[in-house]
Amino acid sequence: MRIRVINPNTTAAMTALIGESARLVAAPGTIVDAVNPAMGPASIESHYDEALSVPGLLAEIAKGEAEGVDGYVIACFGDPGLDAARELARGPVIGIAEAAMQSASHLGRRFSVVTTLARTAGRAWELAERYGMERFCANVHACEIPVLELEDPKARRVIADACREAVAADGSDAVVLGCAGMADLCEFLTDEVGVPVVDGVAAATLTVQSLVTMKLRKSGRGEFAAPLPKTYVGLLADFGIENKEAQA
Amino acid sequence: MRIRVINPNTTAAMTALIGESARLVAAPGTIVDAVNPAMGPASIESHYDEALSVPGLLAEIAKGEAEGVDGYVIACFGDPGLDAARELARGPVIGIAEAAMQSASHLGRRFSVVTTLARTAGRAWELAERYGMERFCANVHACEIPVLELEDPKARRVIADACREAVAADGSDAVVLGCAGMADLCEFLTDEVGVPVVDGVAAATLTVQSLVTMKLRKSGRGEFAAPLPKTYVGLLADFGIENKEAQA
Amino acid sequence: MRIRVINPNTTAAMTALIGESARLVAAPGTIVDAVNPAMGPASIESHYDEALSVPGLLAEIAKGEAEGVDGYVIACFGDPGLDAARELARGPVIGIAEAAMQSASHLGRRFSVVTTLARTAGRAWELAERYGMERFCANVHACEIPVLELEDPKARRVIADACREAVAADGSDAVVLGCAGMADLCEFLTDEVGVPVVDGVAAATLTVQSLVTMKLRKSGRGEFAAPLPKTYVGLLADFGIENKEAQA
Amino acid sequence: MRIRVINPNTTAAMTALIGESARLVAAPGTIVDAVNPAMGPASIESHYDEALSVPGLLAEIAKGEAEGVDGYVIACFGDPGLDAARELARGPVIGIAEAAMQSASHLGRRFSVVTTLARTAGRAWELAERYGMERFCANVHACEIPVLELEDPKARRVIADACREAVAADGSDAVVLGCAGMADLCEFLTDEVGVPVVDGVAAATLTVQSLVTMKLRKSGRGEFAAPLPKTYVGLLADFGIENKEAQA
Amino acid sequence: MRIRVINPNTTAAMTALIGESARLVAAPGTIVDAVNPAMGPASIESHYDEALSVPGLLAEIAKGEAEGVDGYVIACFGDPGLDAARELARGPVIGIAEAAMQSASHLGRRFSVVTTLARTAGRAWELAERYGMERFCANVHACEIPVLELEDPKARRVIADACREAVAADGSDAVVLGCAGMADLCEFLTDEVGVPVVDGVAAATLTVQSLVTMKLRKSGRGEFAAPLPKTYVGLLADFGIENKEAQA
Amino acid sequence: MRIRVINPNTTAAMTALIGESARLVAAPGTIVDAVNPAMGPASIESHYDEALSVPGLLAEIAKGEAEGVDGYVIACFGDPGLDAARELARGPVIGIAEAAMQSASHLGRRFSVVTTLARTAGRAWELAERYGMERFCANVHACEIPVLELEDPKARRVIADACREAVAADGSDAVVLGCAGMADLCEFLTDEVGVPVVDGVAAATLTVQSLVTMKLRKSGRGEFAAPLPKTYVGLLADFGIENKEAQA
Hints:
The structure is a homohexamer of 248-residue chains.
Chain A: E1 2-6, H1 12-25, E2 31-35, E3 40-41, H2 47-67, E4 71-74, H3 82-88, E5 93-95, H4 96-104, E6 111-115, H5 121-130, E7 137-142, H6 155-170, E8 174-177, H7 186-193, E9 197-198, H8 200-213, E10 232-233, H9 237-247
Parallel strand pairs in A: 1-2, 1-4, 4-5, 6-7, 6-8, 8-9
Helix pairs in contact in A: 1-8, 2-9, 4-8
């Protein structure tokens, strides 16, 4: 089984970190690739960044389909492009917010999300609602560390404090990490905070692996059928071509 | 006051039709431009098409900001890129699904949506929820006419039948047209169906006009503040540059 | 086009203020009358007051219908008598809570309501739910200034403070003013608070104007059809007569 | 203990029928009066009628307060004036829709409402939501018999058929009768339909009796405190006076 | 009429206290028994305790059915075994959380629940949702006194403080007591706290009495029909037999 | 890693079938035991059966804890005893309804549930709500085959028809099987119905495996902490003892 974990931003160091976190939990027979798009923003911290990460992400899905990949993880907590990716792929596509929230829903009554910048909290709530996880989400907290500074040695301390304060304020049973760039802090934070801390990269990788094991993939008709063949022009002219391939 | 109506697909004939519908309702002092992106799909009938219409749409917003446009309409019933556009623009940005549903909410207890292809119904429901309009939406019905065939003379008859059946099945008080390409059918359909029929292009143009008249625009901080300056690479490298301008 | 703005309380000074706020935003061709009922309470600060403002309000609607008025604004934040008025009127009737909340929903993720007395907050929440705006409403705050003391020069300072505290506590993107008597403070408060402040009188006037422009009015059948002819007795005997006229 | 059952319309025959239904279930020590207002509509079949029934209803509450009545039933399925009445009364005030739906919620997973005219169904849904009973309400069905024709001997057959069809269509466990004028049909319908049929007049009378027995009445502060003293003018000038008395 | 109040824990002193509270409010003709199971936990303070209280509770229902009991109260705020009991009994079965929350919903806009241990708050929220009472529930507060220490003379002071703080924090109109063991404190607390305080034992007893008076009982078919005859083995082998009797 | 799959009914043949389905999907290093309780009903088709299956289920969890089991599946679509089991177990406990619905939520917009008897549909809806999956659940359909007759060769045809009709009626993207006894039909039904069919036994086994792999288990405090030590009497006296062990 081959799972492709797509970091939707264009920062290779973060892609490497994400790949490691995914491989740590994958079963022996599962091959995990980590890739990032050739176009788009260096980090995703706004609706604008998110929207512009999607074409590159979809190009990676199209490439994966050509290579026979079995399933995909979208490794950004905004789960950008999830629906479009599901139309394009034959196998499962799972976002890390989706998988992390579902995993945390098994650990108690409610979880707190700890994310990077406060301006992304609205999106996290939107996803919680979409996945039916709003009832499990006590609140969304920001540590105000930009995505590309998460690897700074001081960051982990700030994040641990944010997690502890979130759990105390919310009376929650678990923490969901609100950024793929925090994936490697999961064990450290679990020890520091005293409640389970969920990393979406691991959770999504295992969700894809489970769905592929059960041979579960979208039906070929309806809302998530392959996109209709159609002319694309300008910078995105090539996307029309990928589209026709996906149909074949 | 200058309002820009953006047709997010790349079909110029549809842009012209949309512009006419918007100008029909605008107040004397309001200048309405209708434009479409230089890149992207010829029509939008899937999540994939929608996602790929957004970069071109955002480029039009950025251009509008440079030209001092006061507000924008996104003239596709999926309201693609709405949040990203709101970050980028100083004035209001309104989607036609948003405006049409809100207008219809004043006309009775519930409305029916009549859209093009059934595969887009899920997105319509998603938007209804997001705008708080789910409680007013009786159901979403498809007439199964592709967007680019709406101008076929036979289409208006099929759509009228779909509207009539929708109202009968739902016991609804109004119809919301689920595609910008139906904007010119509004009056014909109102006569045929016997309940008010709402076109989102007109509704959104008037909503923007009202917000600009009231001098209401997003606050400069928080979730919808201008996107952070950031490097963009590959095909989308230019979007980093637009971004910095939006900040200035 | 003729729009009638009805202040449902019987205080003429407040009616004048409301009329001015409405006229400030109306388009050149739109005539705006401001009226108040001949019977009922001097101000509306309870469910009791609200219920007893409705007969007078309905009498004004009936009079407007006889005079060919195109649409109505109900200028009290409890939106009293809205459904009854919609049955009676041929054109649109819009409440200021309804319009203000819808307008604010375009300005960010959530708004705060700042109202007069805390005892009216429950009604504001009820309306937010009814209009589908609950998800946009962060909280309802009271400044504890009675309606008829809003024009006191000290009031505007207290209200500005309440708005600022509301925005800080809620992390909201906009403020909705919870009383028609605050309509003239809108610009002052926007400057003071630093986020957009929405006045429902202006918003409702423009919503009515937009609906009339689009020729959108309730369908003639179903829940909002004209009330059935019926005998009314006692003090309200005349209301049976108005009723028959509405049917004609 | 003295309970006053108020029929909010002005038809004495219906008041008598309602009084009998209430007295049938009251405990030995409970005195039940049935009254109707001196002003307002002969029957309530629209939002307009409902709004105009409220002043007369409130006058009855004020009279009851002067006479030391312990609690009140509002015997119309629209529960008109409920919040205003609660401000005015010291003891409990219960609407028949409220009580009937709560009683039916104990009898199975979902109930069907069978009401008079279809145009009142929207109000029934609104009340179901308000009371938290929406989740128990399978659907609202109309038998299209006007309120004042319910006593026609043919009506009971039509209503029985409507109940049976409602239960079959909804797969529901109980029926809630949607009009006080159906109170005397309860036993007949239970036999005919084969599921429990709930009459709100009986249910509300017993709910008031229970609350009075438990000495439960609203707190004297907050939203439901007595209305503030205030000038009322015109036809309703007397209502200002009643108001002051309620405060004393 | 004979009502059986079942204390689902096995502590006889608490059963006696509960019986007294129920008898205080029952009508003259109503006989109230208070019983507790012969097996299960001494107090209920976890999901585990609750689950294990149910077999003994169901045995009491089966016994009551054999003796012709008309209706039952489940006197533990987790309302354990309610659905199963409803299948088994011919007459109404009401939980004290269910009845207390419904009663409190008539007293204002929102109530606060004050319960024993914080670990039971999740269950209280779950029940609030199930009964449609979530919208009336401002919050659930714990006084952290174990069930079997509620009779300690110091407990009533701690509980009074918790109620007062709950009302202040929530701005609520009433308090719902979150444990049958607090039933005797109801009057004392109402005086102390200044808002109505609702005891579920009294409320549920009166709800059962009302339903029996109205001859309302579940329909004999569907989800709450008698359980199907079926083999039970091991410690619970006898429950198969009770089952068959219930069918007869 | 050792996962215990508990069939909560006492029918050994069904336990064997369930064990096979679980082992089919488990990773190489995962040991799967399938067990059933020593007491309780032969099949679970009512709230009564469900409630009485729980003590035996909890005894199996206690035994598993003593043996060092890493996680548990509750293999009945009512997910009986889930919360109590979570208190008792140190590792994850997952119900098959929970896991099946979550898995199906990734496959499209909505799924249909196809269950055994119609009387269990209410419970399925209740669980859908609890897990946040209500928004994904189009409807619950019954094939009216009792649990213990699912292995009849004719049953699979009836179930296939029910699935096909459910998908057609609901326009759904997937089917969730509403009984552990259907686990072996999953592949057959996927072929027959043309949309993915989800078996909860497989889904729950993989969810437990994933959570154990991520080292995610409930926090030791709060609602799901081990049950408090406490006296249990009568037939269930031994459960007090198990309790103390769980604490150690």
